[in-house]
Design a protein that fits this description.
This protein is an alpha+beta fold. It has a single domain, classed as 4'-phosphopantetheinyl transferase domain (Ribosomal Protein L22, Chain A). It contains six helices and twelve strands.
């Protein structure tokens, strides 16, 4: 078992946070399957390719550490609750395993979550520079009022906290952004993370356990797990120049 990727025990959810690789490593590209490489190659911006490569390589390594075997042997499933498109899309899962997975990326960072405790959703967001056109799309009316009461300098970070919490919930339920985030109400950014209400539909039949995750300066992240209470464990990792997964040095 890799010391960077420990086995995740029952009753826990682990989240790995990493910077996108600066220079794509052939070793990392080799971890992707044909569909992932094809998707990677269609991305125009180098930064988007780096984010995609980092997130999917890390997800494969995290899953392989739990399942045994190599990262390239991991097989994913995808389930969409809202359409019948034939190409793989929707909430990811692990073929032949009850372990739950989720991934996200934004700006220059990625997040991968894995849990045996129940369906999981993770979201990482770079703090929004200009949120004026997004508040009505993302926030419920009472949340917009709470945001307006904050000093202007604190609003971008607070808005992004709302956003990450809501998207984590929608990923865990498998709805994604087919459901408007404004239909959900979550706790204020200064309070412990919690789903408070879900309008215009029944709330998930399993309890939503929502947690904030430290994503570093300029980012906000959250993870949601459906089911019994679970312990969330965060790991900061990265890749060296040859594509080896390491724990970044501090200071």
């Amino acid at each position: 078992m890799s010391p960077v990727i420990p086995r995740v025990p029952a009753g826990e959810c682990h989240v790995w946070i990493a910077d996108a690789v600066r220079v794509p490593s052939p070793a990392l590209l080799e971890l992707l399957d044909a569909r992932e490489r094809a998707r990677h190659d269609t991305l125009v911006r180098a930064q988007d390719r780096a984010l995609y490569l980092t997130a999917h390589a890390l997800l494969r390594q995290v899953a392989a550490a739990q399942l045994g075997g190599g990262p390239r042997e991991v097989r994913f499933t995808h389930v969409c609750r809202h359409c019948e498109r034939t190409e793989p899309h929707g909430k990811p899962g692990l073929e032949g395993s009850s372990l739950e997975i989720s991934l996200s990326h934004s700006g220059g960072r990625v997040a991968v979550a894995l849990s045996p405790a129940g369906p999981v959703g993770v979201d990482i967001e770079q703090v929004a520079r200009d949120m004026r056109d997004l508040t009505e799309v993302v926030l419920a009316p009472e949340e917009r009022e709470e945001l307006e009461r904050l000093a202007e300098a604190g609003r971008p970070g607070a808005f992004t906290r709302y956003w990450a919490r809501k998207e984590a919930v929608l990923k865990a339920t498998g709805d994604g952004l087919v459901v408007s985030p404004a239909l959900l109400t979550v706790s204020p950014p200064w309070a412990p993370a919690a789903l408070l209400a879900w309008r215009e539909r029944a709330e998930p039949h399993r309890p939503v356990r929502l947690h904030d995750v430290d994503a570093g300066d300029g980012y906000r992240a959250a993870v949601a797990v459906l089911g019994a209470p679970c312990r969330v464990v965060r790991h900061e990792v990265g890749y060296d120049g040859d594509g080896t997964l390491v724990r970044p040095r501090r200071g």
